[in-house]
Amino acid sequence: MKRCGALWTRLSNWILAIAVAFPAFFLEHWFRTRCGHVAGVWRGGHGSWRASQTPVVLACLGTTDQRWRAFCSWGYDHPLAMANVIFFVNVCIMFWILDIIQQNGWLIDLYWTIIPVMMAHFFAAHPAAVANPTRACLVLILVWLWSLRLTHSYLRREGWKLGVREDWRYNDLRKTFKRDWWWMSFLLVYAFQQVLLVGLCLPIYAVFSSAEPLNLLDIAAAIACVIGVTIAYIADAQLHEFMKANDRRRAAKMRMRLVLNSGLWYYSRHPNYFGEQLFWLGMSAFGCAIGKSWVAVGVTMNSLCMACVTAMVEKRMLRDKRRADAYRRYQRMTSVWIPWAKAVRTPVPRPDNDNGNEDAPPPLGATSGGGDDHDTTPRS
């Protein structure tokens, strides 16, 4: 019976993970089909109602048809604001309610890897979208590439089981604030994630709001994105193999390797974070290529947040007495984010319970919830 219950829980979580996206798809489809017939009204045609009355006035005082037209007008003129409304309804409210019911915020971890793709297609399909075809296609391909890499990494880390655990930071806060966490989570988890994710997607919005010709900065941006995704993929694969090797050693009752100090992890303590940030810097460069450098505010916010997360994760690693000494040595020798040569080429000291392997710190991530305290989902 327990096994059947576990199987049903896994299946129901997979069904839930798919079903929760339907409100966003419905709202987006409704917006395009329901509002499409008044595109002329958006542009000032089909009468003078828009010229004589503002959408806000009509939404409050007009007829039902005028209210729809007012909403359509607003959504047409403000695609970024419309995306925020859909995000707020589908993620901030709906995910939050499910979090309260399940006492687990795992959905936001999964959808962090998917929402940028959804937003990219919303901006691309918006009636007011205008873009250089080559740049638009390039950005969509790159966002999909980023999402596939990160989603695969997340699912592999979770053993292809959804809803088993949530971000360890949220879990710690849940235990700390207890009875108050139900309302605090709305702000600290969901509203905050909206600010970060929408901020990161600002360059995508900019790409679908300008038809400026392609230039050299676009090429540099694409190269940066590809390099970033590649670095993150390799770092994740190395981390995954390290963790699997430790699982095998644990099963064989052998002492675990405490520090991953080989491959990309030899040159950086967080190469997956570096790859992630390089990708979004590349995305911001697309915005700069069309003269909209203000979009870099998103990646700037995410970088500051990730710096805080990095500090939190490293403090957590140092609280583990098994690896604290070795990890401190690793910190002194190895760059935090940017892959760089070692400060001193000396072996990491071996604690008494180590197996003699000098090539390994517990690599890092942002949302580990157990096991070896590792994570391959570099996000804020």
UniProtKB/TrEMBL annotation:
Q: Which residues form the signal peptide?
A: none
Pfam families associated with the record:
DUF1295 (PF06966)
Annotated TM spans:
7-27, 80-98, 105-124, 130-148, 181-208, 214-235, 256-274, 294-313
Domain of life of the organism in this record?
Eukaryota
The protein's UniProt keywords, in alphabetical order, are: Membrane, Transmembrane, Transmembrane helix
Which PROSITE patterns would you find in this protein's record?
A: S5A_REDUCTASE (PS50244)
Q: Which GO terms describe its cellular component?
A: membrane
Check the record and name the InterPro entries matching this protein.
Answer: UstE-like (IPR010721)
Q: Where is this region: Disordered?
A: 347-380
What the entry lists under PANTHER family is as follows: 3-OXO-5-ALPHA-STEROID 4-DEHYDROGENASE, 3-OXO-5-ALPHA-STEROID 4-DEHYDROGENASE (DUF1295)
The protein's name: Uncharacterized protein
Source organism of the structure = Chara braunii (Braun's stonewort)
